[in-house]
């Protein structure tokens, strides 16, 4: 599939939010309300910055897995994934605060086997129970070698909207943009249990460019 956000300075989903404060700022300036206009312009500028869509250099290597999100690694744990992989896996959880880029990227190339949206709560995304109870969207990717990688977009305390641009049956490239989460969130990446994971808790990672690990 073609990267639907490629070449855009901000995600399309952010345009209404920018306009919501940008247009009133112009009107306030027209009416001579300079203080209000400046305040609204600052809010509009931050909103545009929040939805920013930077270009990233994607690392090469068939077995290299890249981060699906910008943020801080808050967990690297071995566990059984019962819904999609139905096998033991390593879960790498990445917490995104309101200052991180919120566009998500595919950790590897392959075919999208499944996408599943699950409504839920809005617990703070850095809490462990958010993986089970929060609103979320799962994307299962199968590589050409048959290995499966699972990405789960999880809404947070502030986030109320998960956006996913891919559908089952589509082929994706490594580091391709596949969606976003608005205003604070978390992404869980499940990789095979034998993956050589190279990140640790506390590391800062960047979607599409930071190497999470290598399949061995």
Strand share of the residues?
35-45%
Number of E strands: 14
CATH topology of the largest domain: Glucose Permease (Domain IIA)
Assigned CATH superfamily of the largest domain: Glucose Permease (Domain IIA)
Number of helices: 3
> Ranges with pLDDT <50 over ≥5 residues?
none
Question: How far apart lie the N and C ends?
Answer: 27 Å
Shape descriptor reads elongated
Radius of gyration: 18 Å
The share of residues in helices is 10-25%
Helix-strand makeup class: alpha+beta
Q: Widest sheet: strand order? A: 9-5-6-7-11-3-2-13
Q: In sequence order, what are the helices and strands, one letter per element? A: HHEEEEEHEEEEEEEEE
**CATH architecture assignment name of the largest domain:** Distorted Sandwich
Give the count of structural domains.
Answer: 2
Largest sheet: 8 strands, antiparallel
The pLDDT mean sits at 85
CATH class category label of the largest domain: Mainly Beta
Can you give a write-up of this model?
This protein is of the alpha+beta class and 216 residues long. The protein folds into 2 domains: 39 residues; 151 residues, Glucose Permease (Domain IIA), CATH 2.70.70. Helix content is 17%, strand content 36%. Helix 1 packs antiparallel against helix 2. It is elongated, with a radius of gyration of 18 Å.
In short:
The chain is α+β, with helices and mostly antiparallel strands. It folds into 2 domains: 39 residues; 151 residues, Distorted Sandwich (Glucose Permease (Domain IIA)), CATH 2.70.70. The protein is built from 3 helices and 14 strands.
